[in-house]
Write a structure and sequence with these properties.
alpha+beta; 36% helix; 37% strand
Length: 101
């Protein structure tokens, strides 16, 4: 899992102190049961500008779309020298609320 973050944020400072992290992804759909996945593992901070640019562009495109990523604000984030990518290599995954098949 890749997460974009800036060097000055608490999450990056915390990872620099302790690379063991967890990430919770859940849904919040009214009238539907909650579903979630919890990932735990070792995090690595990626800072190589070329790698950060490539991964950040991919992340922002996923959420903003091919046109949205071209706007001034995500473009300035992509090129910001403080931008980092958190790479989580999950060692454990916990899933709950899966729909029945």
């Amino acid at each position: 899992m890749y997460i974009s973050a800036f060097q000055s944020t608490r999450k990056v400072r915390d990872i620099e102190k302790n690379a063991r992290i967890s990430v919770l992804i859940d849904t919040d759909r009214p009238g539907e049961p909650a579903q979630a996945v919890l990932l735990e593992g070792a995090a690595e901070l990626l800072s190589d500008p070329e790698q950060v640019s490539r991964l950040a562009t991919s992340i922002y495109t996923r959420y903003l779309g091919a046109e949205g990523v071209l706007a001034a604000e995500p473009q300035s984030w992509i090129g910001d020298p403080e931008n980092r990518i958190i790479k989580l290599t999950p060692e454990k995954a916990f899933i709950w609320g899966q729909p029945e098949s």
